[in-house]
Amino acid sequence: MVDHFSSSPAIELKGSLFTLMVLRVLSTDLEQITAQLAHKVAQAPQLLGQAPLVLDLLAIADQSLDLVALLHVIRQQRLIPVAVRNASPAQQQMAIDLNLGILPNPSRPERGRVAETTSAPPTIPQEELIAPDLAPASIGATKIITQPVRSGQQIVALQGDLIILASVSPGAEILAHRHIHVYGRLRGRALAGVNGDKEARIFCQHLDAELVAIAGHYQINEELPEPLRGKAVQIALDQQRLVIQPLETALR
């Protein structure tokens, strides 16, 4: 008889932190949802194709929902629904029956957010969230990264600012509780104020990001102002809208 537990481990289970798109469902009109979702995906097919998605059902928690049909619409757009949140008990049971996860509801859900960061419990050791060859130069609230952030890597500053002294490649992701500073080319995803800090900002010397976001409000590459591509910019949140300015203008 084979002893499956005396040999070397075959699996490892631990927490981690990921950025997930959140689809806030504001209507049960499937035709309207289909048209608007198709338009969104067409704007950024590389970014959204095969992307995992959390469904936020807060706005329709008291309404009848054909979840099977909704999931079919979402999957037709090559999105992958993985969980629901802010669902009624009946909606939660439907989700369980359809093999979706149930995420805890935020303590203070904010209307108007369209993309958010969903994280595991905050007890995860911070060093597990950083690639070994990208260890920060300091261990204070501000995290400094001196090497390029390559595609597929994720850098997280859980407590303060994140400073990248090199470039951020396409497919890489950087997240910070407060501000983000990139002194090389920003070509991946940058998410500042991931815990909801609306005063957070993003500063970069060369803007060509796949996505920029502050406190859950985001713009994808196709929406970036053409005159500011490749320029040094500052990005801030003003009344639920991202404002991108040339850095020299913002500093006057």
UniProtKB/TrEMBL annotation:
One Pfam family this sequence matches: MinC_N
Keyword line: Cell cycle, Cell division, Septation
Gene Ontology biological-process entries: cell morphogenesis; division septum assembly; regulation of cell division; regulation of cell septum assembly
Record domain Septum formation inhibitor MinC N-terminal: where: 11-81
Subunit and partners: Interacts with MinD and FtsZ.
Function: Cell division inhibitor that blocks the formation of polar Z ring septums. Rapidly oscillates between the poles of the cell to destabilize FtsZ filaments that have formed before they mature into polar Z rings. Prevents FtsZ polymerization.
Sequence similarity: Belongs to the MinC family.
Protein's UniProt name: Probable septum site-determining protein MinC
Lineage start: Bacteria, Pseudomonadati, Pseudomonadota, Gammaproteobacteria, Thiotrichales
This protein's encoding gene: minC
